[in-house]
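Exercise 7b. Backbone tokens:
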């Protein structure tokens, strides 16, 4: 019984790890720009790829003259301000855009952040971005803001089975793709190799047309799941190949995971009624029980049978 409980806890911990891995999104730094405050002439970024996801992060503060310190959207004027505000203190009539950082025509950086860091996620349109700090009188300004441009990293991960995992019976294959659009997935389970075009037992290539469950509703967590019954297949090493098809300009992703098909572990039969209790009946596969009572009566009738045996 103790052994069974330990295995169960281990499975729960592992499940939690898989969940957190699938939610992870990484970003690749593309460019850092310094936007000077003493001019409204725009600072131009490099071209953003059409359809790609970018994270724009702006940080820092600058000085705008007349005892005013400002970040991307909020300002504080020493002598008249009691807190950082969207309107500039004593310059309210110029509106909320005064001293704002503009990214093209966009100056929405959300609510005030005391660290003066603001970020937003945008989709590239094949054009540059133009940044400027708007002021009616920029020439007495000092300093500037820093704009960091990061691009979503396209990544794929196989989450099940694990590397070298020993499996039998119905096997669940799971993987996920982080991307900014939907890509077709080529996949295969192959006997003895991860190489292309040979040994395939399941998949949607090499003449196979098994249907996996693919959910692309969250582009940064596009999930793949396929359950394959390998009960009657040759034992040994297999490879799960998960191969999202690349769009123009994307670098190749092809994930592989080797696992081992083994004889099923035989658990049972129970020899004592206590082994059926506290969900113990669920752990047997030789034979399989419907419920605790089923398990108990199996033990009882088995004991009776042994008792009646003449050679006993
Ligand atoms: Ca100024
Ligand atoms: Ca403002
Ligand atoms: Ca893509
Ligand atoms: Ca690929």
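Sequence design result:
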């Amino acid at each position: 019984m103790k052994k069974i409980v330990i295995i169960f806890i281990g499975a729960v911990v592992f499940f939690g790890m898989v969940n957190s891995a699938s939610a992870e999104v990484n970003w690749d730094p593309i460019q850092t720009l310094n936007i000077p405050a003493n001019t409204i002439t725009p600072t131009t970024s490099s071209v953003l790829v059409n359809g790609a996801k970018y994270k724009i992060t702006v940080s820092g503060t600058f000085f705008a003259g007349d005892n005013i310190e400002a970040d991307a959207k909020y300002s504080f004027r020493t002598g008249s301000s009691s807190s950082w505000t969207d309107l500039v203190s004593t310059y309210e009539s110029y509106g909320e855009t005064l001293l704002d950082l503009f990214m093209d025509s966009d100056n929405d950086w959300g609510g005030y952040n005391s660290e003066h860091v603001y970020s937003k996620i945008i989709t590239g349109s094949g054009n540059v971005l133009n940044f400027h700090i708007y002021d009616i009188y920029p020439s007495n300004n000092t300093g500037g803001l820093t704009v960091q441009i990061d691009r979503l990293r396209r990544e794929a991960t196989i989450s099940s089975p694990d590397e070298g995992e020993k499996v039998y019976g119905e096997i669940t294959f799971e993987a996920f793709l982080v991307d900014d659009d939907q890509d077709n997935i080529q996949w295969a389970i192959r006997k003895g190799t991860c190489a292309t075009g040979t040994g395939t037992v399941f998949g949607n290539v090499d003449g196979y047309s098994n249907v996996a469950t693919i959910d692309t509703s969250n582009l940064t967590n596009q999930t793949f799941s396929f359950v394959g019954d390998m009960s009657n297949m040759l034992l040994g090493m297999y490879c799960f190949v998960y191969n999202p098809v690349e769009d123009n300009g994307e670098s190749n992703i092809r994930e592989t995971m080797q696992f081992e098909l083994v004889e099923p572990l035989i658990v049972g039969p129970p020899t004592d009624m206590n082994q059926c209790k506290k969900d113990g009946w669920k752990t047997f596969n030789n034979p399989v029980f419907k419920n605790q009572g089923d398990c108990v009566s199996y033990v009882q009738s088995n004991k009776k049978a042994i008792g009646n045996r003449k050679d006993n």
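Instructor comment: Residues 243-246, 252-254 surround calcium ion (ligand 4) (CB under 6 Å). The chain is about 10% helix and 35% strand.
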